[in-house]
Specification:
Strand content: 15-25%
Radius of gyration: 16 Å
Helix content: 25-40%
Shape: globular
Number of helices: 6
Strand order of the largest sheet: 3-4-2-1-7-8-9
Largest sheet: 7 strands, parallel
Distance between the termini: 32 Å
Order of helices and strands: EHEHEEEEHEHEHEH
């Protein structure tokens, strides 16, 4: 028998027993849901992104007002990407990351040839505002299956319903594994519902995202 080929150094460290089920397809946006332990998780993931990201990244991180702006500044300082706290009416540009401001839901809306950010102070969902489910639903409406949803460490199940909608639209779903999560609530619910195409340790998340985006 021929020896098995050596694994690629760029391959994400997928959790044992969870086979990747990712489908081929173009990725036009990366949508990230994260809560407890999120700032440190994002600070580990973002420095690995190249300047040449061809798609935007939208992030719902459960944080109070003001702290989301500080988080955006911190991530910009640590990475090759420009990370900003989202503002109402802001255009979505490739290679840029947008964090939902504390206490506001972030949605996407098509305006002519552009995609713009819409903020609102609507009712909480999953006891959260911003809520990942709100963001995921709007991403599904605009991008359909041309999306990679990423669910990182966090308490509760925000993002589960939205991930299901995205999955039904043909999107790919990436979840952080239990061992590397501060709280395996949000990603755990997605995995247990059978929605995750890959379950990856935190140190493999950036490589996995870039593999999906680079198809």
């Amino acid at each position: 028998p021929r020896p098995a080929p050596a694994p690629s150094p760029a391959a994400p460290r997928v959790v044992a027993g969870v086979a990747p089920r990712s489908r081929p397809g173009r990725i036009d946006i990366v949508a990230v849901a994260v809560s407890t332990g999120g700032p440190n998780a994002l600070a580990e993931v973002f420095p690995s992104f190249p300047k040449e990201m061809h798609c935007p990244i939208v992030i719902t991180q459960h944080m109070p007002p003001m702290f989301t702006r500080l988080l955006a500044e911190r991530l910009t300082a640590k990475s090759n990407l420009n990370v900003v706290e989202a503002a109402d009416g802001m255009d979505l540009d490739p290679g840029k990351a947008y964090i939902a401001p504390g206490d506001y839901h972030m949605r996407l809306e098509r305006r002519g040839a552009s995609i713009v950010i819409k903020l609102d102070h609507g009712p909480q969902e999953n006891s959260c505002r911003p809520a990942a489910d709100v963001m995921f639903r709007s991403v599904a409406e605009i991008y359909g299956g041309a999306c990679l949803a990423v669910i990182l460490t966090g308490m509760g199940q925000d993002g589960l319903a939205g991930a299901r909608i995205l999955k039904e639209a043909g999107a790919n779903v990436l979840a952080q594994d239990e061992r590397s999560s501060v709280v395996w609530g949000m990603p755990g619910h997605v995995v247990q519902a059978g929605l995750a195409d890959e379950v990856v340790a935190l140190d493999g998340v950036a490589a996995s995202i870039m593999r999906f985006v680079g198809r």
